[in-house]
From TrEMBL:
Organism: Terribacillus halophilus
InterPro entries reported for this sequence: Class_I_gatase-like, Peptidase_S51
GO molecular function, one term: serine-type peptidase activity
A Pfam family the protein falls into: Peptidase_S51
This protein's UniProt keywords: Hydrolase, Protease, Serine protease
The family this protein is said to belong to: Belongs to the peptidase S51 family.
The protein's name in its UniProt record: Dipeptidase E
Gene Ontology BP, a term: proteolysis
């Protein structure tokens, strides 16, 4: 089976509009079902920015970057990592925003700094990169490196 790369948006000014069009287009076209089948069949997918966010539970993790200028109304992601949403481009000053997101949407968050990725293959999960990833839940924040479980 081959490999698939799902990119994110463009410049910072365009990212949210492009990300939301990208994500909503995947969901509206039912391409999410094709992606799920591809992954379940052993396919490898790398997602960057919006391409990673789509695999989470809720795509509003990118809302702090801009306003919803494209008027997307459905913010549901593919939910392929349980009740976790993916927060890309994480910075330490995002903690308060993420905690608010967790409380408002009842969705835990995997926050990824620029230097970090997560690898998920069935039950195997590990952090790759030079910085840790962070898990935000309604019980607090946990820094993760190496292998981890959700």
């Amino acid at each position: 089976m081959g490999k698939l790369f799902l990119s994110g948006g463009g410049s910072e000014d365009q990212t949210i509009a492009i990300d939301r069009i990208f994500v909503s287009g995947i969901m509206e076209s039912k391409f999410d079902e094709v992606l799920k089948g591809y992954v379940d069949g052993g396919g490898v997918v790398y997602g960057g920015s919006a391409g990673a966010i789509i695999f989470g539970n809720n795509i509003l993790t990118s809302a702090h970057l801009d306003i919803n200028t494209v008027e997307v109304e459905d913010f549901k992601g593919m939910g392929m990592i349980g009740n976790y949403s993916v927060w890309c481009h994480f910075k330490k000053n995002n903690d308060r925003l993420i905690n608010r997101f967790v409380a408002e949407y009842d969705s835990s968050v995997i926050a990824l700094p620029e230097e970090t990725a997560i690898f998920i293959d069935g039950s195997e999960k590990k952090v790759i990169g030079t910085e840790p990833a962070y898990i935000f839940t309604n019980k607090g924040i946990k820094s993760i490196t190496g292998n981890f479980s959700l």
